[in-house]
Write a structure and sequence with these properties.
homodimer, alpha/beta, nicotinate phosphoribosyltransferase, TIM Barrel, 7-stranded antiparallel β-sheet, 15 helices, 18 strands
Chain lengths: ~425, ~425
């Protein structure tokens, strides 16, 4: 089974023409964001492990070649070139979990021009979403004041692949857990969940549902209390706890959550149930969390779904894969608003007192002896080391975020200085 | 290989508890949008064929069961129930390509309560994105005045699965073609593409690149003219055409496209090249198209990418999968802003003079003899007919869109009357 049709038609027409025109010299493409969204102060690079897997699987199968032949566009020689295609070039990148900014290369790919041209769509598609999801997650964690944030977004992700990889990206960026079982299995991420309104509704009374659930799961009881009336639900939880049932927490999923959480907290505390946690879901994002916590609303944990997993305030990045070097010559275009910087590059980060101050994006030496964030991951198509675990990536992201300049983890816009060297 | 871990943890904890508590009676869940985004006047239902495929593949493999056992949450009895799980219930739905509105059931699933509960995440994830993509595409086509619109979004889709299915959804909604080869192969959609800036840049001069491309593809030449200077690029195209090269069109991908397209048109026309088409890409969406065409900008075709494929002005739908009936009894909750309507339902559409006027969402009779948009697709887990082809679905969508009330295909907000019967 081939996977290499996950690309745009023009990558292949260009590649055929490059081969016909003898344009097969060494080329370097660079993946970077031209600008950051107004709503982001930094990005967390994410998706490199998945990209390496996809590059290794990037093959044109017989069914793919048959389809392409049927288009009537491609020569037999070119179809044979596709049949034999294996990526044998080099790939350098910043490690997953690294903080990056505008104009900084996340991934740079080197090889013969047609060999690296046809990877454009795959590389952009693989890196953009995961980096966007990790960056959105980091922003949410940044305002949550160390209260656990859990990914509930799978159902509204743009299909399953995005949902599973967003859960991984969010964990890397500091989320506590995910509801997504496939992500839990694939990446070893902690999984969590409570109950839906449908559970409550099939019992004759709400407290019957609570009792039933606690008898099935005596140790893991977070009760959804807003199906009919949130405050009445909280009173039923008080009775339940008094009857000896272990109650870990309550979840509020509708209404004016700030007001309701405050009232529920009072009901619980008045009855000596200070240990029961309040969990908020429903349209939760960094803006809601900042508002609640700024107003002292007693919420202990957040379930974030749709707005995280679609990165709804910034659902794409201005990310591109641009030819920067061909046969050793600098490549750049001058299109308005889309100017690019030539040459393979290294990112040199400067810090003071443990906080980053500014970056320089400098031309990569040959031999590559300027220390910086970019390292070689594949050389002539083969890996240069073993990939880090998800927990190692998460630890890197945590350390990177801790070294951001003051104010970058707030919702106010900050611009980080990135200097482009000659 | 199982695929059934593409779900949320709580679906399985609830299912285990339902089984333990004897809550295994017949249940009906309904998938619908509570409200439409402010930026959408209607939706095009899309994703049913993929949902049927995913339901058929919904199995817990040994590796999945091993993972679940390791969580320490589930009983051996329940894991065995999962091992034997096959969907054997019924599914009714509106056909793909149907215009739908708020509170109208796109999909309704019936079976024993735990059997249909655990499908929630899958059903939402599968239908939301495809319906959203088709709806965004229809809105774009609606303002494009019959000029061809082409999907260029794959690279910025939220991973490959979304990209491939968005191309299908867009074609159903009236797009002319896609750049996405995998979608072309899977769904038989026309594919199209031009060239990237990288192609131009590796040649010594821009006109060398144009000549080289036309020698590789004499019949399919759309030239990208904005790499350095768009108007100078247009002059080079004039020379190229005069030298006898067949030029189908030019593409402009940056700058002030309205002004540039007008100037390029003048250059071409002045030289007797009225037949050369102008193709616009870069940040194209329905708002840009409406502005250009409203101002008389001479663009012949549009490449839409990022803003289409992420549905960036409305990147999610307020879509839910709600229990509406259990053991023949109505199920509803009263959470503020999240009230639901009980019972399995039919959609009855009323029209006058070929234009739809209002819908009624009525309780489904038993036997089901109210004619309407909802039909049975699966009965006891088996299909009741052969699925329509993509072209048949596209034809249905075209006819449906043609019968929308006046004004619904504009960018002004319209509210369609949907009455909920008792």
């Amino acid at each position: 089974m081939g996977t290499a049709l996950n690309t745009d038609l023009y990558e292949l027409t260009m590649a055929q023409s490059f081969l016909e025109q003898g344009k097969t010299g060494p080329a370097v493409f660079s993946l970077f964001c031209r600008t950051l969204p107004r709503e982001r102060n930094f990005l967390i690079s994410c998706g490199l492990s998945v990209l390496i897997q996809k590059l290794e699987a990037f093959r044109f199968g017989n069914d793919d070649l048959g389809y392409l032949a049927g288009l009537g566009t491609f020569s037999d020689e070119f179809l044979d070139w596709l049949r034999r295609y294996r990526f044998r070039g080099s790939l350098s990148a910043v490690p997953e979990g690294t903080v990056v900014f505008q104009n900084e290369p996340l991934v740079q790919i080197e090889g013969s021009l047609p060999e690296v041209q046809i990877l454009e769509t795959l590389v952009l598609n693989t890196i953009m979403y995961q980096t966007m999801a990790a960056s959105k997650a980091a922003r949410i964690v940044g305002v949550a004041r160390n209260k656990p944030v859990i990914d509930f977004g799978f159902r509204r992700a743009h299909m399953t692949e995005a949902g599973v990889l967003a859960a991984r990206a969010a964990y890397i960026a500091g989320f506590f857990a995910t509801s997504n079982l496939e992500a839990g299995k694939q990446s070893g991420i902690p999984v969590a969940g409570t109950m839906a309104h449908s559970y409550i509704m099939v019992f004759p009374r709400e407290d019957d549902a609570f009792t039933a659930f606690s008898s099935s799961f005596p140790d893991k009881s977070i009760f959804l209390i807003d199906t009919f009336d949130t405050l009445a639900g909280a009173e039923k939880i008080v009775s339940l706890a008094r009857s000896g049932v272990s109650v870990t927490g309550v979840r509020i999923d509708s209404g004016d959550i700030g007001t309701l959480a405050t009232a529920v907290r009072k009901i619980l505390d008045k009855n000596g149930l200070e240990d029961i946690k309040i969990f908020a879901s429903s349209n939760v994002d960094e803006y809601a969390i900042a508002e609640w916590l700024g107003a002292g609303v007693p919420i202990d944990s957040f379930g974030v779904g749709t707005r995280f997993i679609t990165s709804s305030d910034a659902p794409y990045l201005d990310i591109v894969y641009k030819l920067v070097e061909y046969e050793g010559r600098p490549m750049f275009k001058t299109s308005p608003g889309k100017a690019t910087f030539p040459f393979k590059r290294q990112i040199v980060r400067h810090a003071k007192g443990g906080r980053m101050t500014h970056d320089e994006v400098v031309r990569m030496d040959s031999p590559e002896n300027t220390p910086g964030l970019v390292t070689t991951i594949l050389r002539r198509g083969a890996g240069t080391g073993s990939p880090p675990s998800v927990d190692e990536i998460r630890a890197l992201a945590t350390a990177q975020i801790a070294s951001l300049p003051a104010g970058f983890m707030t919702l106010e816009k900050r611009e980080y200085p990135v200097r482009i060297g000659n």
